[in-house]
Amino acid sequence: MYAEERQKAILERARRDGRVDVTGLAAEFDVTYETIRRDLTALERHGVLRRVHGGAIPVERLGFEPTLNVRDSVMTQEKERIAKAALSELPDEGAILLDAGSTTGRLAEQLPTDRELTVVTNSLSIALTLTPRTNINLMLLGGRLRTRTQATVDAWALRSLAESYVDVAFMATNGISADRGLTTPDPAEAEVKRTMIASARRAVLLADHTKVGNDHFARFASVEDLDLVITDQGLAGGLADELEAAGPEVRVV
């Protein structure tokens, strides 16, 4: 087995079990402890695992919030497919909202050039992506900028959202589960996300499978508040049915 194949299997095991240990992995793959330690170090450098004593934990299970750059380097192919699938949810004309996030950022990159759209966003990085686009009427929400996520939050952003109404809100989340709903580590971002959903005719969540089943500190919506969830084929069996039972359509791409 090549190192890349072994590291992919290690990451899948960590996400499934919540943790991996060096001893167990060395025995499973019939390699030395040092080989496994090198694998874990490589995965940590990619931002998908965090080394702990004797093993590693997937970043989705940790209490800290990864930066946008770290999140944008993870699950890249899956996020591209999700963003491409979301294009079918765009209106022919009108207004959409793009929440701050790595997958919504990829949707911004793929927005069509053959129609006029008003795009409302609280993401500095998305705004910079769309600035050169002459067919986009760009509305950047003001407020305090969280450098970790490049998202604007607090009263200025909330005030603008309260006075807006869009056709579709394309949302991001750190975690989603049928029981807990949609969650994120920061309460200020949670409040903005909650107001975004309220300001939209339809709410579409773009979330790769690592977000499903994870919970974070601040809850901003119920699953039933969504109209559609677009995720990838890595979603564990049964989880799509659990989410659909709560209300939204789930599209696996």
UniProtKB/TrEMBL annotation:
<keyword id="KW-0678">Repressor</keyword>
<dbReference type="InterPro" id="IPR037171">
    <property type="entry name" value="NagB/RpiA_transferase-like"/>
</dbReference>
<dbReference type="InterPro" id="IPR014036">
    <property type="entry name" value="DeoR-like_C"/>
</dbReference>
<dbReference type="InterPro" id="IPR050313">
    <property type="entry name" value="Carb_Metab_HTH_regulators"/>
</dbReference>
<dbReference type="GO" id="GO:0003700">
    <property type="term" value="F:DNA-binding transcription factor activity"/>
</dbReference>
<dbReference type="InterPro" id="IPR036388">
    <property type="entry name" value="WH-like_DNA-bd_sf"/>
</dbReference>
<dbReference type="Pfam" id="PF00455">
    <property type="entry name" value="DeoRC"/>
</dbReference>
<dbReference type="InterPro" id="IPR036390">
    <property type="entry name" value="WH_DNA-bd_sf"/>
</dbReference>
<protein>
    <recommendedName>
        <fullName>Lactose phosphotransferase system repressor</fullName>
    </recommendedName>
</protein>
<dbReference type="InterPro" id="IPR001034">
    <property type="entry name" value="DeoR_HTH"/>
</dbReference>
<feature type="domain" description="HTH deoR-type">
    <location>
        <begin position="3"/>
        <end position="58"/>
    </location>
</feature>
<dbReference type="Pfam" id="PF08220">
    <property type="entry name" value="HTH_DeoR"/>
</dbReference>
<comment type="function">
    <text>Repressor of the lactose catabolism operon. Galactose-6-phosphate is the inducer.</text>
</comment>
<keyword id="KW-0804">Transcription</keyword>
<keyword id="KW-0805">Transcription regulation</keyword>
